[in-house]
């Protein structure tokens, strides 16, 4: 039995790896993981493969409670090579087993109750039944959610839960999807990062396994999501969330310019734009600054002036055009040109 702090820490870390059902860990993988994690607990000097093998042997044959391990193989591929090989791995035979299962305090139960009730707006989706199951197993008192999240119920409702679980587990997945404008189905392997809603449609955002390029996929175009436990997960870019702060919608173009967009809105639509901003950076101008901008851009005397700071994409131009004659872009010229082009296309469509 481990008799020092180092050995006990290794057992705790190995327990997490053996209980993980979304990744496939070989002895080599476990050794690398322990070498990376042990210094965080003040332990230096590294750990050998033989040491990990002895720890596994102790767990399997000498631990105070019975532990059953299973050995299996998966198709694996390193991010640094295209060669696929069979990797020999091991894990707990029982997917629900873990050596360490701590009890919740009353305060922790209260926090969990509120959190589960808040995300309970997903409870109509197949695959999120674990919310109810978790409530029952933890002995939490059911309560009405205090926040109702918008959701678009998908034809294949399990995809939301599968994507959510893969993101939580940092698991590489293979997607099968079909674009609206394509006649055939495509496949892509990604490291999933984020589920994002825009305009009542859900998107899965992740990095392509081969190129690392961040892509988005509409969940209603996905056919299936399959976890690839033998593949190495690519960590999300540090600025992932910041990218979506700089755009309207979901389409992000690498290297796109950030514009300060000044626009005029009529008196009729100004209250709507003021209370439902086009973008989080929206500013409404008043006083001397408003007067100066009206003179600079020769804006009408009525109405209101606003500005946003974001990158150009399809959703931005569509949003600006959605107000018709109630909104006019005053600056910069590239955005004016994009809106003008869209208006001309509409005029041609209507024979004007």
From TrEMBL:
Domain WCX: 259-347
All residue ranges annotated as the WYL domain in the record: 162-226
Pfam families, per database record: WCX, WYL
Protein name (Swiss-Prot/TrEMBL): WYL domain-containing protein
Species the sequence originates in: Sodaliphilus pleomorphus
């Amino acid at each position: 039995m481990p008799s020092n702090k180092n050995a006990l820490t290794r057992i705790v870390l190995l327990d997490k790896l053996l209980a993980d059902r979304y990744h496939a860990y070989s002895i080599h993988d476990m050794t690398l993981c322990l070498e990376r994690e042990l210094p965080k607990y003040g332990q230096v000097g590294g750990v050998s493969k033989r040491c990990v093998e002895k720890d596994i042997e102790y767990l399997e044959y000498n631990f105070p409670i019975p532990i059953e391990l299973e050995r299996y193989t998966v198709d694996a591929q390193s991010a640094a090579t295209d060669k696929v090989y069979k990797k020999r791995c091991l894990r707990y035979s029982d997917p629900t087993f873990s050596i360490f299962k701590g009890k919740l305090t009353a305060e922790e139960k209260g926090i969990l109750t509120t959190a589960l009730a808040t995300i309970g707006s997903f409870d109509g989706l197949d695959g999120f039944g674990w919310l109810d199951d978790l409530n029952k197993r933890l002995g939490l008192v059911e309560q009405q959610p205090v926040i109702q999240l918008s959701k678009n119920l998908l034809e294949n409702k399990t995809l939301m839960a599968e994507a959510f679980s893969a993101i939580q587990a940092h698991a590489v997945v293979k997607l099968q999807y079909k674009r609206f404008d394509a006649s055939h189905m495509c496949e892509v392997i990604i490291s999933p990062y984020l589920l994002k809603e825009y305009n009542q449609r859900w998107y899965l955002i992740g990095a392509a396994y081969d190129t690392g390029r961040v892509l988005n996929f509409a969940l209603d175009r996905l056919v299936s999501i399959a976890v690839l436990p033998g593949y190495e997960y690519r960590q999300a870019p540090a600025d992932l969330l910041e990218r979506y702060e700089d755009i309207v919608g979901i389409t992000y173009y690498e290297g796109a310019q950030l514009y300060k967009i000044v626009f005029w809105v009529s008196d009729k639509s100004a209250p709507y734009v003021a209370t439902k901003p086009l973008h989080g950076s929206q500013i409404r101008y008043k006083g001397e600054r408003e007067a100066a901008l009206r003179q600079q851009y020769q804006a009408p005397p009525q109405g209101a002036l606003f500005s946003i700071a974001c990158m150009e994409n399809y959703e931005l131009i569509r949003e600006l055009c959605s107000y018709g004659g109630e909104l006019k872009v005053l600056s910069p010229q590239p955005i004016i040109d994009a809106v003008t082009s869209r208006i001309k296309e509409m005029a041609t469509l209507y024979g004007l």
